[in-house]
UniProtKB/TrEMBL annotation:
It comes from the Bacteria. Residues 1-25 form the signal peptide. This is Cytochrome c class II. GO terms for biological process: electron transport chain. InterPro entries: Cyt_c/b562. Transmembrane segments: none annotated. The keyword Iron-sulfur does not apply. Keywords: Signal. GO terms for molecular function: electron transfer activity; heme binding; iron ion binding.
Amino acid sequence: MRSKWIAAVVSLAAVGMLGLGLSQASSVSSTPVPVALDGDGPLHEIMEGVNKQNNTLRKGVRTAVAYKKSYEEVLAASEEMVKLAKKAQEVKEYAEKLNKVKEWNDLSQKFTESAEQLLTIVKDKQKTQKEANDQWKAMGKTCTDCHNVFRIDEEDPFGR
C-alpha cells in the first residue's frame, strides 16, 4: 500500500518538474541569433563551403595522428579553402549595402592570405601538425573578425 503512494508522489513530482522545465524553456524565445546577410545568395553558398572545409580541417589538424591519417583530405580542404576565400573576395554587394567596402576588402584579403599560408604549410611535408593547427586557428580568427563586422542579428525562427 505504501509503495503505491510513493509511486504516485514521485510521478506527480516528475510531471510537475517537467511542466516547470517546459515553461522556463519557452520564456527564452527573444534571443537574437546571428545570420548571414544574404540568406541563400552567393555569399551564403561560399560560406557553406567554407564551413564544410573547415570541419574537415578541424578534424585533420587537431592531433598528429589525425594529421598523418587524413593528410590528403587536409590538403584538399586547404586547396578548396583558398579557392573559396578568393571567390568570397569578389562578392562585394553586401559590403556596398553597408558602406563597408574597405573593411570587406581588408578582412577578405586577410582570410585569403591566411588560407594560402595554411596551404603552404600543409604542402610542405617538413612542417608539423602543430604548425598546421596553429595556422588553422589563425585562419579561424580572420573568420571571426569578419563575422563581427558583417553579420546581422535576426530573430531565431525556432524561438531559441
